[in-house]
Design a protein that fits this description.
Two copies of one chain form a homodimer. By secondary structure, chain A is an alpha/beta fold. Chain A has helices at 14-28, 43-51, 54-61, 72-75, 82-102, 125-133, 162-171, 189-206, 210-213, 232-241, 247-250, 264-273, 303-309, 315-329, 331-339, and strands spanning 3-9, 65-70, 107-112, 139-142, 175-177, 219-221, 255-258, 279-280.
Chain lengths: 342, 342
């Protein structure tokens, strides 16, 4: 089985975006604020949006199951207050839940949280509980910068975040550390802010002893870990100067990287440098980079090809990346699959 | 000849830091503000600080000439106002100038600028002019985020920066795009902020048409380009979605990467992915990562070894990276060397 641990519902019916635009207008003028019940998307519309997009590509590319969460760039936690984010998160998570119900063999949910800058992360827990208990979601996306590029929250190692971690540990679910749209003109969302956040999150963990407080906490750092594997020597050296343990012991029981790196040399480096136990297959399609690479004739984000072609993996390690590691990092997914005899 | 294009005066005599601390104290209480004349560092002290550190390692590692600028993390443009930065930049640049005079075969200067958050970059030009005309400096370090991790300045593509670019073009000097200390708790200075800034600067250029306005402007992006080469496919794909020309044509006549990547697989990727014309040798020693890699027994920042060992270069391309490209990107350095018959 091939599990893609990083997919967002980027192809939701237009009605969703229209409702969101009305919600944003309603922040300035409450008269314009739409009711949740005004958003109507039928199962047929959901089915169509998935069958013609993600599911079609999953079949073409040979992946079986996608861990599916709301569109990352649309989380936009910086917009409005906690109530705005809360309503928006509930809507987006419910849509992913419906997709997972419509295609139970192919999609399983991961939750966005109703974060809001300056608001205690504890307020996200109710949505998290609902998604895990009622929807059967297997993970969450945690935004380390709900301000959208102004980085006004404390680092991930701060006790500020501990209530979320306590709940994650209780439920045994990992968090993908994933920012959303940048509203800082310095940072292009998918070309800078996403990658910077990945690097930043890793370094926040490196400089701290977070995983001594939470030995079973698991973070999945997307986009191949930002700059981290490319600068693995730098990070090993920085940890050494700080008298931290080897990264293997200090971080790699808790931190994992996905394979959203859109060219062969990048995946070659990732699979050479990072222990195979810490790499999870992902493509983030249909996402930031949707085109066909003229140098290969294949989609940039068809990351399975790179994994098949890298000389640093064999059949066994490839299978770990495609399936085994995801089942280990997402124990609720593993349990759900086992229940189905998979 | 082997030219290291990225060295900072990280080993300046303690008197410099002591003077700076007094200057910082003087921001809060003007009575404490020291006069420039109170900083006294003798030539012998300078000589000693270089001979026992950078020059010793250059000889051990076989590099000949370092493009030498003030310590990056000490620029700290966020501290105080323009006058504070201006005095501090003048002091630091003068010290680098004195080092270059003491060791003319081994060091040539590059200037830090007296930037200050919210202040027109035009105010940096006088220091730049002095450093080029009087000191014979061959480049500058431009900080895209003088706020120190809050990213409050416009992107590098904004006209805000154009006065600096006009002067750079006039003098035919490149800028290394280099941030300083982060005062944002989210960003570790050398483990996150530096690498993020590299990626951010590249993406700011990618999304703009800056180099149409300045076809001869040259940016050197340090630390191996941050996350950029590792995600080269992502950047190619993003440019393609934006209908930009191929990166080769869109950016690579103007953007160059150094080799401050502290392990073999990183340099392998860099030299495989980025055209050889766009790579300049550098080590940034004695800098962020000063230890010995237990996996190799050699210093992490002894980057020459990685370049010698990578299978993606030959004698000719190696020489380009060691010398030829630096002479092309720093024309004033080339002219100075030629004048010496080198």
């Amino acid at each position: 089985m091939i599990i893609d641990c990083h997919g967002h519902y980027t192809t939701a019916p237009k009605a969703l975006e229209q409702w969101r635009n009305r919600q944003i207008a309603g922040i300035a003028d409450p008269v314009l604020m739409p009711a949740v019940s005004e958003l109507k998307i039928s199962d047929d519309e959901l089915r169509e949006s998935i069958e013609s997009n993600q599911l079609r590509l999953m079949k073409e590319r040979g992946s079986d199951l996608t861990i599916f969460s709301p569109r990352a760039s649309f989380m936009a936690h910086h917009i409005g207050d906690f109530n705005v984010s809360s309503t928006w998160a509930a809507i987006c998570n419910e849509l992913c839940h419906r997709v997972a119900q419509l295609f139970p063999e192919h999609f399983v949910g991961a939750a966005m949280l109703p974060q809001s800058p300056g608001v205690d992360p504890r307020t996200s827990i109710a949505e998290m509980e609902k998604c895990v208990r009622e929807y059967g979601f297997v993970g969450i996306n945690l935004n380390p910068d709900p301000s959208g590029g102004h980085w006004t929250s404390p680092p991930l190692s701060d006790r500020h975040w501990y209530p979320v971690y306590e709940k994650m540990v209780e439920y045994d679910i990992p968090a993908m550390i994933h920012v959303s749209t940048s509203c800082n003109a310095c940072f292009h969302t998918t070309g800078a802010h996403y990658l910077n956040a990945d690097t930043t999150a890793f370094m926040q963990c490196l400089t701290s002893d977070l995983f001594q407080d939470f030995p079973t906490l698991k973070f999945l750092i997307p986009h191949g870990g930002g700059a981290v594997p490319y600068h693995w020597g730098r990070f090993r050296g920085l940890a050494q100067e700080m008298k931290k343990p080897l990264l293997k012991d200090h971080l790699l029981n808790n931190i994992f990287f996905d394979t959203c790196v859109y060219h062969q040399p990048g995946i070659d480096l990732l699979s050479k440098v990072i222990p195979v136990d810490n790499i999870l297959f992902a493509s983030e399609m249909i996402g930031a980079v949707r085109g066909i690479d003229p140098e290969t004739g294949h989609y940039y984000d068809d990351t399975r090809r790179y994994i098949e072609n890298t000389p640093y993996l064999n059949a066994e390690t490839r299978q770990q990346i495609f399936e085994g590691n995801a089942r280990r990092v997402f124990p609720r997914l593993d349990a759900a699959l086992k229940q189905k005899g998979l």
